[in-house]
Design a protein that fits this description.
Number of strands of chain B: 0
Oligomer: heterodimer
CATH superfamily of chain A: NAD(P)-binding Rossmann-like Domain
CATH class of chain A: Alpha Beta
Order of helices and strands of chain A: EHEHEHEHEHEHHE
Structural class of chain B: mainly alpha
Structural class of chain A: alpha/beta
Radius of gyration of chain B: 11 Å
Largest sheet of chain A: 7 strands, parallel
Largest sheet of chain B: none
Shape of chain A: globular
CATH superfamily of chain B: ACP-like
Strand order of the largest sheet of chain A: 3-2-1-4-5-6-7
Number of domains of chain B: 1
Distance between the termini of chain A: 40 Å
Strand content of chain A: 15-25%
Number of strands of chain A: 7
CATH topology of chain A: Rossmann fold
Number of helices of chain A: 7
Chain lengths: 251, 72
């Protein structure tokens, strides 16, 4: 019997791999034998991630996902060079915290383009014939803000809700090709931005005090779920948005 | 941008009455000065002056002049 957690011979594309959840997922997959193609706009961060990877054959590409028109030619270059994919993880995103008064049309457009538009465009590229292997699994990194109201996260939350909606539609549309699509739905992960936000509010808005029973999450917690959704262990799961939230959405 | 222009920009952004702010105004005396107001000022510094203000820094600020100085 083959080990369904073995990614030897498989190739996965990760956007937003220069830090956080994207980096953690890349490192975990590389330990399981997977070959990684990483994309991000942050060259130094990407190089750092690559230096942390196990195994050989990985590569990275600098792509500005805010420029949607540039994605298809860049993707074509990648697939011509490296061949078809077994998985795609969309971690790239702008973490935008703005009151409504500061959400100008250009800000809204940028957040939706990078967080959601590039997910659709990369998915459009990867599901073309010869660009993927049988059993392709696509995972988007969503957020609990897609399901619960939050002050000053309107643009960000809308972009994540759009992704949740897209995987429901595309799971149905692409089911006949055995392509699976899901999102993971993290609650608050410990980041510098969050710690700074807590300092500003004097800790009054610390959700771990009330709703997130298990405290702040780590990128590793989210990466574990992503790797499961990429693996054959989750072969009957598609169109879902799965929380990894320390209890938040149940509270 | 002169300090007068910055004051008008902050008033406009926070929807305060025209000419209600002075450099010496204490931030704590601004109407409804709370975490949303601070966040708005952080975003304003980023958008208009390309300056990254942290939550910790803004908590240290006492008067409007501290913000004007940070804007540069």
């Amino acid at each position: 019997m083959t080990d369904k957690n073995d990614f030897t011979g498989k190739q996965v594309l990760i956007s937003g791999a220069a830090a956080g959840i994207g980096r953690e997922t890349a490192v975990m997959l590389s330990k399981l034998g997977c070959r990684l193609i990483l994309i991000d706009i942050d060259k130094d961060g990407l190089a750092d991630t690559v230096s942390n990877l196990f195994g050989t054959g990985h590569s990275f590409n600098i792509i500005d996902l805010g420029n949607l028109e540039s994605i298809e030619p860049a993707f074509k270059g990648i697939v011509d060079k490296h061949g078809p994919f077994d998985g795609f993880v969309h971690c790239a995103g702008i973490r935008c915290r703005r009151p409504i008064a500061m959400i100008t049309p250009s800000i809204l457009s940028e957040v939706l383009k990078v967080n959601f538009g590039s997910f659709i465009e990369l998915t459009r590229c990867i599901i073309r014939r010869n660009n993927f292997n049988e059993g392709l699994s696509i995972v988007g990194v969503s957020s609990i803000s897609s399901q619960r109201g939050g002050v000053s996260v309107t643009a960000y939350a809308a972009s994540k809700a759009a992704m949740d909606c897209a995987v429901r539609c595309l799971a149905k549309e692409l089911g006949s090709k055995s392509i699976r699509l899901n999102t993971v739905v993290p609650a608050q992960i410990e980041t510098r931005a969050y710690v700074d936000f807590l300092k500003m509010t004097g800790g009054a808005e610390d959700i771990t005090l009330t709703r997130q029973y298990l405290g702040l999450g780590e990128p590793l917690d989210v990466a574990n779920l992503i790797v499961f959704l990429l693996s054959d262990k989750s072969k009957f799961i598609t169109g879902s948005s799965i929380p990894v939230d320390g209890g938040f959405l149940s509270s | 941008m002169t300090n007068e222009e910055k004051l008008r920009l902050i008033e406009d952004t926070l929807e305060l009455d025209n000419n209600s702010l002075k450099e010496s105004t204490f931030l704590a005396d601004i109407e409804n000065y709370d975490s949303m107001t601070k966040l708005t000022l952080i975003v304003l510094c980023d958008d208009e002056f390309n300056k990254k203000l942290t939550g910790e820094q803004i908590n240290e600020f006492k008067t409007v002049k501290d913000i004007l100085d940070f804007m540069g």
